[in-house]
Amino acid sequence: MTFCVLSEAKGMVIKMIKTVVRSLLLLIIMIIITGLIYPLLITGISRIAFPYKSSGSLIYTDGKLIGSELIGQDFKGPEYFHPRPSAAGQEGYDPLRSQGSNYAASNEEFLTMVSNRIDKFRKENQLDADIAIPADIVTASGSGLDPHISVESALLQVSRIARTRNISSESLRLLVIENGRRQYGFIGEPVVNVLKLNLLLDNMK
């Protein structure tokens, strides 16, 4: 009787060990497939099919990396188009700390912040009090890294840039309008990529 019990217990232990070994082997196989083979395969396909996008849509000038068209940057000079505000990191525009402000639309601190931004935008662009200021140019995006602003926000900055660079306002307006794009060509309002627009601006004669 005792021998039978021990034999049965031994059999159960062996069976359990086999189950554990099989589970571990399956786990290792799945890790190799999903954690190594699949990512390498998809990366290889994307590098061949979409080399520019799969590399981060990086923009170079004279061989020097100046940014990505997917990540917003801060332009403060009066001779450039300014981006929308950023809540990503202490100084903003930190790609390692992508985030929004998390303020509610009714939050008093948020309302004060937006009001100050409106006043600053009006002042630096010499806009009359009756001109409506687009929301995107005075509020941060959910990621804090949105590289785009609305065409309307860009057009409100044309006069300042034209004065600073001593170039035609009409040529700047045309530059903005020609580079306005809707998402996928048909979704939402036209927007412009601030970094790409400023690069075109620097190349204007």
Derived structural class: mainly alpha
Mean pLDDT: 89
**What percentage of residues falls in helices of 4 or more residues?**
40-55%
Q: How widely separated are the two ends?
A: 100 Å
Radius of gyration from the CA trace? Answer: 28 Å
List unreliable stretches of 5+ residues: none
Q: Could you spell the SSE succession in H and E letters?
A: HHEEHEHHHEEH
- What percentage of the residues does DSSP assign to strands (E)? 5-15%
Oligomeric organization of the protein chains: single chain
Please count the beta strands (DSSP E, at least 2 residues each): 5
Number of helices: 7
Secondary structure elements and pairings:
Layout: H1 2-49, H2 51-54, E1 58-61, E2 64-68, H3 108-125, E3 148-150, H4 151-155, H5 158-165, H6 169-178, E4 181-183, E5 187-193, H7 194-202
Antiparallel strand pairs: 1-2, 3-5, 4-5
Give a structural overview.
With 205 residues, the protein is mostly helical. 50% of the residues lie in helices and 11% in strands. It has 2 domains: 2-52; 57-202, no CATH class. Strand 4 (181-183) and strand 5 (187-193) form a beta hairpin. The chain starts with a helix and ends with a helix. The relative contact order is 0.11. The model has no long low-confidence stretch (mean pLDDT 89).
Keywords:
205 residues; mainly alpha; 2 domains; three-stranded antiparallel sheet; two-stranded antiparallel sheet; 7 helices; 5 strands; 11% strand
